[in-house]
Design goal:
The chain contains no helices and 8 strands. By secondary structure, it is an all-beta fold. The protein has one domain. Strands 1, 3, 4, 5 and 7 form a 5-stranded antiparallel β-sheet that branches. A 3-stranded antiparallel β-sheet has the order 6-2-8, with no helix packed on it. Strand 3 and strand 4 form a beta hairpin. 19% of the residues are buried.
Length: 85
Amino acid sequence: MWPASGYAYATSNCNDINVKPSIAAGGGFDFVPVRTCFYPTSGSSYCNAYRDITVGTWSLAATDVKDGTRFIVQFQFSTKGSIAY
């Protein structure tokens, strides 16, 4: 899970959440299943479906995210990499 505690907040820099995994669990996979969970100030939290993101490439974890939206990114197994939002 990212961040390790609390939430990240969408910024005006981009209306998407992008992920670039650099390695997957044990190095045995060439993709990482990723989903984004949202925590609106009103209403229930919800998550999008897992998306397979190829190791070493930037890809969308979520699109059309409003500025200030609280979110976390969940990985189906351990990984390292980068997140842009």
